[in-house]
Amino acid sequence: MFKYPAEFKIHSIFFVPLIGNQLKLCIMKLLTLILPFLFFLSCQNQPGTKETTDSTDNKPAITPSIEGTWELIGYYNYANDEVTDSFKTNNGYRQIKMYTPTKVMWSKDVPQDSTEWFGYGNYTANDSTLVEVLEYGSASMSNIIESKKEFKYELKLGKDKFSQIELDDEGNRIYSENYKRIE
Hints:
By secondary structure, the chain is of the alpha+beta class. It is built from two helices and eleven strands.
């Protein structure tokens, strides 16, 4: 068994308080560095939100943002503007949408189908409307883009979910694609 030298025992009563004070000093220095950093991080916008200014009292207000990556999770069918049916996506089916500040890109993977589906273009969104103007897409989508480039939807946007609702010519809801945020 290891034995401490005799002089260590004499000095150890003086050494322990010194380590205690040094440890306290070290902890205080770390806290003065770490706490401002943590405060800075806590003040950042959360994913899926944008800071805007409330016009009534000029206080910043956090509003949901469509920027990010989204995965289709299900659909709603409507009649008389009411949901009449809802269903989830099939196993293996995936549809992903990605929004940057001005661009949209989406892709769809249906394992039972060899047809490729994707599209790319610009978009605009406000509190209630999403408009996607596609520039190009897969062969299947290019056939659709030839006759219709602009896709306008009613938008219901939350922090981590959104629905794009297809409207008929009279403004009645037909169906919606419902997405959850994945990044």
